[in-house]
Amino acid sequence: MAVVVALGAFLMTLFGGWVAQRVTDRRHLVLGLAGGLMLGVVGLDLLPEALEAAGAEVFGVPEALLLFVGGFLFAHVVERVLAVRSTAHGVHGDGATAPGAPTKGGRETGGRVPQVGLTAAGAMVLHSLMDGIALGAAFQVGGGMGATVALAVITHDFADGFNTYTLASLYGNARHKAIAMLVADAAAPVVGAASTLLFTLPEELLGAYLGFFGGALLYLAAAEILPEAHHEHPALSTLLCTVAGVGFIWLVVGLSGH
Predict the structure, then answer these.
(1) How many angstroms separate the CA atoms of 101 and 52, rounded?
(2) How many domains does the chain have?
(3) Which of the residue ranges 4-13, 43-52, 148-157, 241-250 would you say has the lowest mean pLDDT?
(4) Dihedral sign from CA coordinates of 82, 84, 85, 86
């Protein structure tokens, strides 16, 4: 049953990515909404679940919060290291290319490193895999629990698909790479749900992962997505899209009974 429900998550993820592609002429609105969705997922879904699953303290601080901060710092370090490597190969921090240095397929990346986008999208795929595992585990507990988790997974997978495509394309990756990451993200819940027929993930390990991933996702939303959304279009409509994204995740979490 869990695998069948995961197919709904597969379709919802693809739909989210399709929406992100279709509104490219309103890029600032797309990014504003994506930032709000990511902020909502982190603050209202991932972090509470992480604290509940991995509640043990390490030197007076909950383990999940330590990993949350670690995930934030990890994302920051990875981006800075890749940016330094890019600069060393002839790309300046403002996105300009040094004389004689090759461009990335002739595309302007705005100083952003494509590998960062692929890494972030890959993290979204891993998150969707964990969604599938959670879905399968919930159905092992009972039909009622499975239905509750299924509602949450299927609904917020729209945001996952939207964010996966946006993250990959924002950093200058070719469209076919962004689509490949979207398809991988869509298939991940199905694979995760099927895997629960073979093993069960310890709750504490799941909580630790959610905390770390939440920190990395928050960095991308706060330091990259939202500043980019307001850089050229500091409009009220962009801000409203961000608030709407957070509100949507709040609605999903409330309906799912978290």
Answers:
(1) 50
(2) 1
(3) 148-157
(4) positive
